[in-house]
Specification:
The complex is a heterodimer. Chain A has one domain: 3-Layer(aba) Sandwich (Rossmann fold), CATH 3.40.50.970. Chain A is about 40% helix and about 15% strand. Chain A is globular. Chain B folds into two domains: about 240 residues, Thiamin diphosphate (ThDP)-binding fold, Pyr/PP domains (Rossmann fold), CATH 3.40.50.970; about 110 residues, 3-Layer(aba) Sandwich (Rossmann fold), CATH 3.40.50.920. Classes of the chains: A alpha/beta, B alpha/beta. Chains A and B meet through strand 2, helix 3 and helix 5 of A and helix 3, helix 4 and strand 9 of B. Strand 2 of chain A pairs parallel with strand 9 of chain B, so a sheet runs across the interface. The complex binds thiamine diphosphate (TPP) and iron/sulfur cluster (SF4). Iron/sulfur cluster (SF4) binds next to helix 9 of chain A. The site of thiamine diphosphate (TPP) has 16 residues of chain A, from helix 4.
């Protein structure tokens, strides 16, 4: 192999929109990995022309033109109903709602709860970075006990603010047969990608609500370097938020 | 294709909410998304009874935010969708309506005004004029029809879908609880049989490459200047099409007038009854009614108001129509008076009395 060939960048997914690359996330941000896993899954499943991708407010909005797929950028917390509306009006589409923990567990939580409870045939990917990234690092429903943020400067006091929100656990509890629920982490890309792909396959099979939370870093607001970002995800976060599959539809006989 | 829901002309006697459900069917609407609130509930009740028989669908969402945003989604998917709400539901829906406005998504919403902000007084007011015409955190680039009787509820429901899809501004049918709940005769018809062409919906999202390109719909912008450009061109577009959209009605407005009574919606009917009494006595009292509250028939009102010694604004709110009228007449030396009755109905007798008290 020539030197040029060896130094070529890794092959970019076909469903990437090249005009919007390199992407606009901060270096080391978790969003990039998750979006890559989504893109690779879209390619592998051959659904590029069927996907309608919706992103939320928060850093997820930076992905409004990330893919070469039909996309809509919605308001904070409202991506779930927008994708629900699209999917209900045209069941042929593969609807993806992409959001942060603020969008999914705080402002838009009633939409998440009710879409899950109705077993809407859509796929929700939620990036849990334990804070509000875009607005400058405030406390999120997922901020860890004693974690410092701009609005919990002395560390999150769970007596006052409650415990970190356990999304997949809740969604698994309220969805019915056919739902797919998992929690992955950017620190285990292969596994996370597997969950992402399964969540899309589940929608393609028309089985039920598909939900994957992904633990991700926000080095800018965490004020962490590469090493401690990784360690925070792998140790502190994964310790509280257990990675794994929470609900898998029964295999058809 | 399923048979047309209405064939030929049909004389019926129904409530306003039932009329709207039928009109939506006649307009070939596909989906309704909604959340219960009085006085619009029966639109959903009738729609859910009619829908399955005509291959139409419905979703009762968890709240009005969701109803508004699912409607936005349905429209993006290329279906004729609508929602209906009132009062605090209208407040919540301003967020999805703002998004629709900015993204030029032709959502249609029926607003059946109720007293606000309150609970229990759930039936009537004209207090949602400001919210419906200018609500949201943008510039209020919307279209608002204010019908006054059941025939108009039918006609303008059909028209709302055509206007929305033709111009791609969110379009509102602003009724009220009296119109929603009372029964009245009207003629229902299939619009196409009457030569009314139904504007076809277009798919924005969901058929990928078939459109030849992927669409990325957004209201996130990198700079204030970018937003400025978009809003400015939207304003220009809105002003350009406004004359095609604007509608009003004049009742006994010929020649010089002692008093010009300005009212909209159901209150116009009281105004017209009052005018009938004056004209029987040979008195020069006319009535001007904006049918579109936004865009507002500014030029038309200015022309007529200048022939009047006095104008009288009558509404079941404290000057919400009044604000629109005053803005329209800005700069003209006009003597104005008002009859503001927030949250309650207005009779023709009250209007007659008021006109007599100000007629010189
Ligand atoms: C109705 C509304 N309230 C508040 C905001 C401001 N806002 C923008 S992004 C954001 C937080 C985003 O955090 P999260 O959803 O966790 O996503 P992240 O940026 O961390 O990826 C907030 C509060 C908004 N856009 N809309
Ligand atoms: S602020 Fe945080 S979440 Fe947002 S792009 Fe930067 S690192 Fe990512």
């Amino acid at each position: 192999m020539s030197v040029e060939e060896k130094s070529l960048p890794p092959k970019l997914p076909k469903s990437y929109r090249l005009e919007s690359k390199p992407h606009k996330f901060c270096p080391g941000c978790g969003h990039g990995s998750v979006l890559r896993a989504i893109a690779e899954s879209i390619d592998e499943l051959g659904i590029q022309d069927k996907v309608v991708y919706g992103c939320d407010i928060g850093c997820s909005l930076l992905s409004w033109d990330f893919f070469n797929v039909d996309s809509v950028q919605a308001h904070h917390g409202r991506t779930t109903p927008v994708i629900t509306g699209i999917k209900r009006a045209n069941p042929e589409v593969i609807g993806i709602a992409y959001m942060g923990d603020g969008g999914g567990y705080a402002i838009g939580s009633q939409h998440l709860v009710n879409a899950a409870n109705r077993n809407e045939k859509i796929t929700v990917f939620l990036v849990n970075n334990a804070n509000y990234g875009m607005t400058g690092g405030q406390m999120a429903p997922t901020t860890l006990p004693s974690q410092k943020t701009e609005t919990s400067p002395y560390g999150r006091d769970v007596e006052l603010t409650g415990q970190p929100f356990l999304g997949p656990e809740m969604v698994a509890a309220i969805t019915s047969e056919g739902a797919y629920v998992a929690r992955g982490t950017v620190s285990n890309y292969i596994q996370m990608k597997k969950y992402v792909k399964k969540a899309l396959e589940n929608q393609m099979a028309g089985k039920g609500f598909s939900f994957v939370e992904i633990l991700a870093g926000c080095p800018t607001n965490w004020r962490t370097d590469a090493k401690s970002t990784w360690s925070y995800i792998e140790n502190d976060m994964a310790n509280y938020f257990k990675v794994g599959e929470y609900k898998v539809p029964a295999k058809e006989e | 294709m399923a048979a047309k829901p209405i064939q030929g002309e049909k004389r019926v006697f129904m409530t306003g909410n039932e009329v709207i459900a039928w009109a939506a069917l006649a307009a070939q609407v596909d989906v309704m998304y909604g959340y219960p609130i009085t006085p619009q509930n029966e639109i959903m009740h009738y729609w859910t009874r009619l829908a399955p028989k005509h291959d139409k669908t419905f979703l009762q969402t968890e709240d009005e935010l969701s109803a508004g945003f699912t409607t936005v989604g349905g429209v993006l998917a290329g279906r004729k969708c609508f929602t209906a709400t009132a009062g605090p539901g209208n407040t919540l829906m301003q967020e999805p309506f703002s998004m629709a406005e900015m993204m030029r998504i032709p959502v249609v919403a029926v607003i059946q005004q109720r007293g606000g902000p309150s609970t229990a007084t759930v039936i009537y007011s004209q207090q949602e004029v400001t919210l419906t015409t200018f609500g949201g955190n943008g510039e209020g680039h919307r279209i608002v029809y204010s019908p006054s009787n059941h025939q108009e509820l039918f006609d303008y429901t059909i028209k709302s879908f055509n206007t929305a899809w033709k111009y791609r501004f969110p379009t509102f049918l602003l009724g009220d609880g009296y119109q929603a709940k009372m029964r009245e005769p009207l003629v229902m018809y299939d619009p196409e049989e009457r030569g009314i062409e139904l504007v076809k919906p277009e798919v924005t999202l969901g058929n990928g490459m078939e459109k030849g390109k992927y669409n990325h719909v957004r209201n996130t912008f990198n700079t204030e200047e970018e937003l400025y450009e978009i809003v400015t061109s939207m304003e220009e577009e809105y002003q350009r099409v406004a004359p095609e959209i604007i509608e009003h009605q004049e009742y006994n407005c010929e020649g010089e007038l002692d008093v010009l009574v300005i009212a909209h919606g159901v209150v116009s009917r009281a105004a017209q009854a009052a005018i009938n009494l004056f004209s029987a006595e040979g008195k020069a009292v006319g009535h001007f009614r904006p049918i579109t509250l936004r865009p507002f028939p500014t030029n038309e009102l200015r022309a007529t108001a200048q022939r009047a010694k006095k104008i009288l604004i009558v509404e079941s709110a404290v000057g919400q129509l009044g604000k629109l009228v005053k803005e329209a007449l800005f700069g003209l030396p006009i003597d104005a008076d008002y009859l503001y009755r927030p949250g309650v109905g207005i009779t023709s007798d009250e209007i007659v009395e008021k006109v007599n008290s100000i007629r010189k």
